[in-house]
Design a protein that fits this description.
Keywords: Signal. It comes from Paenibacillus kribbensis. The protein has 352 residues and is mainly beta. Helix content is 11%, strand content 42%. The strands form seven sheets. Strands 2, 5, 7, 8, 10 and 13 form a six-stranded antiparallel sheet that branches. The protein starts with a helix and ends with a strand.
Length: 352
């Protein structure tokens, strides 16, 4: 019974060890004569590979360093998000290889020794890189053979010459400014638009003709608003805005237009400077009406006149006749009708 149990246990242990090694070899040592779906293979004789040290090639699918020479390495750039180093095992292959991607070691002490056979296998695999240009160095730290049977990476990627200084991607020009709006004021037009995250500044362009041609009236505008004060009331202006950054200038926004108009509130008449004044109102009939008023009464009259001239307030104004009352009346008022007034005159004086 014991003779049966012990060999059985040994067999299970050996099976476990074999299974563990097989699992670890799903990357290193997996046979792969052709690239899998979603991958492409670059042959060792591709002109974008840089071989350092002494190298020899057996055919387009097989490059190796010279036996017992140091300083051998394979260098290249590629655009992609994954990579496989393809080699074959042999007893005399290097047992100490370092692979660097973008200057950082991703594997050290890679051992490529094994069964003497010329079958293409995965020597190393890396996934989930950022899809961009990377530079790769496969460095032999020993004097045995460094093999290259090909490099696999994304089928949408590209191999490029070795260059450890990668030019950053060109920044795109900003988008066309959106939501441009124009607001009219007296001798002013205010523009507002939605800021673009890729823009550094904006150009504001204007025309007095619909659809242009436009003249740039402001450059290096850093806010998403601009006030155009070089305008004439009653003239229609047409505007577009473009966005800029280090990559260039966007297309023009859609066109908006606006016409500046005078303010609805006229400039108020200056107030009286004396404490009393003689107000002479000339009616449209030619009749002059004269009133001796206090400063407060005169200010009330002027405020009523200015407001009515702007289209606000009552059509008449009541003036107290004060000492001009005649007869048994305690109070008499003279009502002046706005649209009957031809002109009025103020003569200020002081009783102090």
């Amino acid at each position: 019974m014991k003779k049966i149990v012990i060999p059985t246990l040994l067999s299970l242990l050996l099976l476990f060890c074999f299974a563990s090694n097989t699992s670890a070899a799903t990357i290193k040592g997996t046979l792969l004569s052709n690239p899998e779906k979603g991958w492409q293979r670059i042959k060792p004789n591709n002109e974008n590979f840089t071989y350092t040290g002494q190298y020899q090639h057996l055919d387009q699918n097989y490059y190796q360093s010279k036996w017992q020479t140091s300083g051998s390495a394979i260098k290249f750039n590629f655009i992609g998000s994954k990579m496989r180093y393809i080699m074959n095992t042999w007893w005399s292959n290097s047992a100490n290889i370092t692979i660097k991607i973008d200057g950082k070691p991703v594997v050290t002490n890679l051992d490529t020794r094994g069964k003497d056979e010329g079958l293409a296998k995965i020597g190393f695999e890396v996934l989930n890189l950022e899809f961009k240009e990377h530079y790769v160095e496969i460095i032999n730290n020993r004097s045995e053979y460094l093999i290259n049977r090909g490099i696999d990476f994304d089928d949408t990627g590209e191999i490029k010459p070795y260059n450890p200084v990668i030019t950053p991607p060109v920044k795109p020009v900003p988008s066309v400014p959106l939501d441009l709006k124009a607001t009219s004021e007296n001798l002013k037009i205010i523009l507002n638009w939605t800021a673009d995250s890729g823009a550094i500044s904006y150009n504001v362009k204007r025309s007095t003709t619909k659809s242009g041609p436009y003249t740039t009236i402001a450059t290096s505008v850093t806010e998403s608003t601009y006030s155009d004060i070089n305008v004439v009331n009653g003239t229609t202006y047409y505007y577009v805005v473009s966005a800029l950054n280090s990559a260039g200038e966007s297309n023009n926004s859609y066109e908006v237009s606006a016409t500046p108009v005078p303010s609805s509130d006229p400039t108020p008449s200056p107030g009286p400077s004396g404490d009393r004044a003689i107000l002479v109102v000339t009616m449209d009939t030619g009749l002059d009406k004269e009133f001796d008023l206090s400063k407060k009464e005169l200010e009330s009259f002027i405020q009523w006149y200015d407001a009515k001239d702007a289209g606000r307030g009552p059509s008449f104004f009541a003036i107290d006749k004060h000492n001009n009352n005649k007869g048994p009346f305690s109070n008499r008022k003279d009502y002046v009708i706005f649209n009957k007034i031809l002109t009025f005159e103020v003569s200020e004086y002081s009783t102090k």
